Each structure stands twice: as C-alpha cells, then as structure tokens.
Amino acid sequence: MINHVNKLVLKVSILALLGTLTPVHATPTKDSKQKQLTSASKSTAGAAISDAQVKQILEQRIDLWQRGVGVVVGIIDARGSRFISHGKFDQASDVLVDPNSVFEIGSVTKVFTSLLLADMAQRGEVALTDPISNYLPSGIKLPMRDGKPIRLIDLANHTSGLPRLPSNLAPADPTNPYADYSLEQLLNFLSTYELPRNSGEKYEYSNLGVGILGQVLAMRAGSDFETLIKTRITETLGMKSTTVTLDKDLQSRMTVGHNESLKAVPNWDLPTLAGAGALRSDAKDMLKFVGAHLGLLKSSLKPAMNTMLAQFTPTENPNVTIGLGWHKLTARGASIIEHNGGTGGFRSFVGFNPASKVGVVVLSNTGNEGMDDIGRHILDVRFELIEQPKARTKNIKISIDPNTLESFVGQYELMPSFVLTVSREGDKLFVQATGQGRGEVHAKGARDFFSNDVDASVSFDPDVNGKAPSLVLHQAGRDMKAMRVEEKAATIAEPESKSETLVSADILDQYVGNYALAPNFILSLTRDGEKFYAQATNQPKFELFAKDAKNFYLKVVDAQIKIDTDASGHGISLTLFQGGAAMPAKRIN
Q1: Cys-Cys crosslink for 359: which of 76, 200, 279, 330, Cβ 3.0 to 4.6 Å?
Q2: 370 and 259 housed in the same domain
Q3: Are residues 363 and 413 in the same domain?
Q4: b vs e for 28-46, b when ≥16 Cβ sit within 10 Å of the residue's Cβ?
Q5: What is the CA radius of gyration of the chain?
Q6: For the segment 477-509, what is each residue's pLDDT rounded down to a tens digit?
Q7: What is the DSSP string of 313-344?
C-alpha cells in the first residue's frame, strides 16, 4: 500500500493527498555513475552478493547517507534463513534492531489480503469474479459503470476504477491519517462515487480498493480482518509476530518509526481500511511468508499462493505486471516478484526470485524510499543500487519578528478540500497540508520560507489588515496560489449567471484526456453523451458547462477551465481558474 510515499508537509507533490500506501517500482538503470559497494554488481546475471556486502550497504545508507535509523534484511534460500541488521531501534536510544524487531509493513499487507482472497476461492467460499455486492449488506449503493460491477479480483489487482484514496478522508490527526476513517464514511463515499471507466479495464493503484477487499472478505467469513488473517494465514505459517493489534510482548519489540528527517513519528492505525496496510511484523515471520511462496517451507496455502501467480496483467509501467496482489518487475533480463510498503515512519520490501529460489525481506523504521533497491539488488544484481541522493542545499536562515510570523498564521486553500495550514510556535513557522504531517519552514526573506525536508518553498503576499491574504507554493516548477480561507469567503460574491451553450460531441471528444496539474495530480476530462465532465485525482467527477467551444465552468464550485488546442482542434493543454489562481496543465494522454 501502500508503497509507500507519504510523509511530511509538501512531500513530492503537495497535491497528492496521503500518497502513502502505494508501490514505487524502480526500473534498473542502464548505467550507473556511482561505484557500488558490491563487486557482484559487475558479475554475471543473477549472481548473489555476500552477507558482508549487504552489511556494507546498510552501513552506507544509515551511517554515511543518513537515509535510515534501523534496517533488518532477511534472506531465505535452499540453505535456510539468515539475517543482516544495522542501526537502532530508535534514534533516541542505543538499542540495536535485530530479526525480532517489529515494524509496520504498510502495503505489504495487500499481499496478505490477496492471499485471503485466493484461499477463500480455493475453499469455494467465493469466486474471484464475484461482484463485491454479493457479500455486502443489501441496500448499500455501489458504483457501477455500463452495467459492469466491481468484482473481487478487480480490487485485488487494482483495476476496480476506484481512486487511490476516498475524497472524504479528512483526518483529525494527520500524523495518524486513517485512524478515524469509519465504515460509515466509506459506504457514504461509495454511494456517491462515479467510476471513470469500467471495472477490470485499467490498472490504477488503489489503497481504497484493497481496503474494501479486506472488509468484504471479513464480512463473507463472518469475522473481522485481523482474526481472519490470524486463522487463515499467520497461524498456518507459524507467524506469531504478524498482527494488527500488539500484545505486551510485541509492543516491547515494536520499533519507533521516523520520518525522512529521522524524527520520531506516531504509528498508524487503519481500522476501516486494514486490508490496505494495517499489519505489523518482524523479519523472521516475513521470511516464513516468502519461503512458503517459494516452496522452501511446506504449507497448505501453497495452492492459493500458486493462484496468485497464475496470471499477470499489465500496469501503467511497461516493466511491471500484476498478478493477484503481487507485482512482477521485469527489465534487463531480470524478473522478480515483489511488493513494498510505506507508512509515516516505516518502509518495507518483500520479494522473491522464482528462478533462483531466493527470497528477501527488508524492513526499515524510516519512512523514506531508500531501501527497495537493496531488496531488488539482492534478488538479482541486474537491479542496480541507487546513487547517493544529492545533498540538499540549505538556505541561510534569518530571524523574523514573531508579530510578522503571526500575520502568516491561518488556512490557505489551494483547491476545494485541500488546505495549507500555517501555524506558529514562538519564532518557528510550520506548514501542514490536508492529510499530511506538519513540517517546519525557515525564512530566507521577510516573506519567503523554505523547507529542509522537501524541495518546496512558500511566499506570503503583502498583509491586508495585518494578515497575509494569500500565499504562493513553489514546487515542482510550479507557482500555485492559495487564498486565505476567511479572505476568500469574504470576497466571493454571488455567482454571476452564466449562459450555457451546447458544444458538439465531436468537439468535446477532441478535449477528452488527462491533463497534469502537478506530479501525481491529474485533471481528467470525459464525455458521456452530450455531457462533459472534469475529475481531479481522488475527487468526485463534476459536470462542466460550456460558455463557448473552449471555455467551461463548474456549478458546484467557483472554477473555470479554458481549453487550448492545436491547429486541428485537438486539446493540448488547459488552464484551471480557481481561487484567484490560473493553473496550467499539459495534456499527457
């Protein structure tokens, strides 16, 4: 789930709400300018690297690069299981991590959820192609398109048409973002969501979808997700340290999670979407899980595990296909099966090489993306190690008068339901985006601030009545204006009446496509008969109304869209006008 991109304020794209819980699949590079620590990197295809070389890699990542706090690597093959560990249980202590240390495994939970599905299908309790409505209480309204329902298999392989996260996810505590998301909220979202395409048609990674799968399977079994995992999987495999709820022993072994700045962060709880990323485990247990998939450990679950790998379908990445839960990564003659996971303070990788019969687990108590390549490299050295991240150039910090800082405090709306909250503690200023953690920003000018954690900065506009009326977020090459919420509310007048005109379907079809407002934040334009729609990533679909052939507006919010075309009338870009900002977006397909 959760593969794994979440974190602080302004992470990668501040517009990507809680991007955590998602897989990142790195493709092996053709060339590497960095000297690898392992001579095996230059060896023959599939050559193994030694435990000593793995230890050197971990020392480099933690001690030299400062890309982690504690990491445990587990390797299983025909010789048995072995472990290589380095680093600490907690940045604030001297206790070392070991194979018994417990970590959040994030989206690796999704493989367990898919195994539940395969096992229940083997038992005849469900069929992979059953509509999910078969196992939910009657009267629940579910999204459907063209008469095609969402099926169990669609949830497992991310082809349901559901978004990565529900648009009504609004955590009270952004440091534990899923804790208060209820089943009622989930069902309310499903009852109003309109699918952008038919289920089963296209891969789109969805934490929401696999979270729903966990709920559906538990309801079918008359159980809860945690109990079902225990009775069907962990007890069968002898995995005594893999669970959602920690007993006293597991609590004593649970490591402390850290963000990219190596600061301690809270654990995550996912009561409603548990199937997407709620499990905790240790390296010993996870090697049992991988060993059973490889057939190195005998298990009654092996037929179900074989079902998971029986058929693979394409994803948006030409090097990646998906079976039932597992992803297959193939490039440069190498092929492995894998899944990774990430939460606010943890990162996990689990994979195996069917050809060499080797399995690998990498567990880290730091929520960055700097460990997946280690697991892949151990499985096959043709998957190269990443180069050392470039050191961030730190701006010179200057002091700002607290009264001036106070004028910046407030909420600034980048777009509906996505707000930047600026707060102050003494002479420190913080920014927090909806659904993300709070991060400190530092002054490089009287009204200009930067983050040491991500490549982003904010500039506050001159005060009006002692308060900054707006700010500009500078990130990923874009300048995005956000108005102060109370300022916007005070200045928005009644919507002017807008005359509507009818645009032909042939013209609208020229505009249909996906337009990138920011990395991982897409505005999709679609047509259904004479109606034209816009849908932003993780948000509902809204109808557009034409003022003329190239200018459209929404009635549900105060926003307009202008289409730019080439000589043939084909849409090549658009501009979204909202909240006093003009946001350009190039067409990507």
Answers
A1: 76
A2: yes
A3: no
A4: bbeeeeeebbbebbeeeeb
A5: 25
A6: 567 888 888 765 444 333 344 557 889 999 999
A7: EE-SSTTEEESSS-EEEEETTEEEEEEEEE-S
